[in-house]
Every structure is written in structure tokens, then in C-alpha cells.
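Look over this record as teaching material.
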Amino acid sequence: MDIRETILAMDIDMRQDRRDFLRNLGILGGGLLAATSPWLSIFADAGDTTGEKLKLGIIGPGSRGRFLMKFLVGNSKVDIVAIADVYQPSIEAALEIVPNAKVYRDYRKLLEDKRVQAVLVATPLNKHFQIVMDAMEAGKHVYCEKTIGYDMDQCKKMYDKHIETGVVFFTGQQRLFDPRYIKVMQMVHDGMFGEITKVRSWWNRNADWRRDVPEPHLEKFINWRLYKESSKGLMTELACHQLQVGTWAIGKLPTRVMGHGSINYWKDGREVYDNVSTLYVFVDGRKMEWGSDIANKFYGLEEQILGSKGTVELERGKYFFEEIPPQPAFIQMLNEWQSDIFGDTAFAGTSWMAETAKPNIGKYILGKKPEADGSSLLTEAFVEAAICGRQPSGILEEGYYASILCLWGHEAITSGQILDFPSEYCIDYDVYDTSTSKTEHL
């Protein structure tokens, strides 16, 4: 059976949960999925870690941190032994999940705790760098939410520190562990959708992105995403997920980027844009578009992979081939009968016919609507990797470049210039054909 037949035959037993599904794929990671998702191979070691416990510390148990904690406390291989935060409401909410965890108000004290083997960092963006660097220096394995650094230089230093120390380093790119993305990327790379000519994605909302502030002096502390000193707005909070999907599909890094951003609607004192548009261009002319508007949610979020033979809409969990199977003979007869009575609708000839979207219902990637993303499996993979002390191939490189693309795009927006890829931030990654000494393609 060739890979095309294997993918088409990969119909998931809906009685299995996604954990079993990905563990089965992980065992195959050395063969079928090695090129597309090599990081899944970490699940092949799951049987060897039975009975093990990872002593984990949470640095920044805010809304995102607590979201991930709910997956972690359900993992029999995890013991959350410590939390660190400076905001009492976050501490109290976290203690409702892990009542026996030791509380630190200084993350450095948590890093001194000899029980802690690994940390999850879910603080505001501008705090990531120093915390991660200190954690690696202390020999702790690290899971850091995206975007990993406030600027490209920080990202490179964090990556280099990982290489120096050898600790496990994961980033919050959960789509890497989402079964529908994994399956589609194998289909894409096998050529089932033809030549991929463009990836188009967006993330729209209709909300001011604000949180309630109990005291005025806490405004910038709580609403840190709205201020330049602590955030780069939509590019670092949302784009990181979807830009990685684009390069994952195309298998290359773009060579140029341009963009624009402004504050159009939410003129409430925020400093970051409420809408942005970016265009990334590859050396062969292919394009990757990303944008966000938080004053209109009608189109929500989506990642579209456009190929010469078909299209994928990943958030909907569906794919569509260009050629729709012929209609049943009875329907064709009715259409011909209607045409005979009412005539041809193309009054000005066929060139007049609008090329509107075709009525193609497509097929679900996994046989049904998506139910969740890959967050639970991402945390599970981190636990396995930290227990084993083994960095899965490709996962950090994907997260690193996703962060670089966001920050590079933000720089293009703020500078108003078309920017070439900053080759000084290339790292060794064969999938994208990059290394610190091989950058002539960029």
C-alpha cells in the first residue's frame, strides 16, 4: 500500500479518543509520519515511562496557564508541586486546581526548588525571555507559551541556550499535535492537493480584548496585551499559530514580508493595532497571507491551503477537491429540462458568468466536525519528553520559526517597509533547508 492509499485508508475509529489515535501515529513516527510530524515519535516512549512522575512548576497561572493545568492534572505522570505568580487572584484560582502546590511570589525561588524538574511558562510576553533563560540555566525543562520572545534577538538567544544546556524546550504550538492538521499535512506533502500555490489565514473577533481591572493602577498589569512595552498585539498573540501552519504546508520559509496595521475601531487608549494585514512571499513566488480584525467576527478564524487539485479549510476540518464528481443522471436531466424552458443564464456569453465559489460540500478530514485542538496532546508530549530527557525532532524548530515570522511581520508593519528575511536568525533545520551557514536561498 503506497502512502496515498495509507492516508485515504486512515479512517479513525470514533470509539478511540484522540490520545490513542496519536499514540498509534507516534509509534509509526519513524516511518509514515517521519517527514511531516517527527515530534510524534515521543509517544513511542510512553510505555517506558509508566509509573514515572514529572515534578512540574507553573510560572504564571493566569487564564492560559490554568487552561493547560487542567490537562496536566489529569495526567497520571504529572505532579504540579509549585506555582509562582505576583497576582493573588491568579494564585487563588490556581490553588483550586492544585491545592497542595507550594506558592512562590518570586519565580526565581521556584527555580531553586530541588523538587521541580520542569516549568511551564505562561506569563506576559515581555517576561518570557528572562524566565526561560533562568530556568534553562537552572537545568529545568521548559514549556513556554508562544510567542517565545519579545523580539527576534531574544528568540535566538533562547534557542541557543537550549542547545547549550540540552534541556527539553517546547513552545505552545498546539496545532502540531492536532490530528486533523497531522493528517492533512501528510496529504498535502503527498501531493493529493496538487501544487500548493497559496496559504491564506485570518483570525477575526468582535471584542475589545480588555479584561476587568479592579484597581486603576493594575490596568497595564492586567491588560498587558494592549500595550507596547509588554505585547506586540495581534501578531504575537494570534498569528504565531497560523503562520506555522503555512510554512508547515509549503515546507519552506518566506523570503520577504510586507504589512500594515492601524487602530481603526477600539480607540480606547490601547497602543497595539486592532487590525493588521500581512503578506509573506516565498522565493518561488508563492504567497502566505495573514490578517486579523477585532471589530468584526463574521468570518471567525480559518487557515486555507490552496492547491491546484484541491483546498483545505483546517478550522472547519474539511477538504475539497477541484473536480466535483458528476451529478446523478436524474439531476442532470432536470437541469437540461430547466435550461430548455428558461434558456441559458449566461446572457452575454460564458465570459459573463461570475466565477463565484462552487457548491462543493467537501469531506471532513477526520470524518466529523473538529471537537478540540491539540493542547492536551501537546502537554502530554512535553511530559513524556521531560521524563525521558529527550528533545523531539522538529518541534522547537517549528515553534522558533513561527515566533520569528510573527516578529518579523510586526517589524514590517511598524516600519512600513518590505523586509527581507533576517538570515542572522536562521537555525539548523533541514525541513526548511536552513542553517547558520547555509542561507543563500533566503
Q: What stands out?
A: The longest strand covers residues 196-203. The mean pLDDT is 88. The longest helix spans residues 395-415. Residues 196-307+399-432 form a domain with the Dihydrodipicolinate Reductase; domain 2 fold (CATH 3.30.360.10).
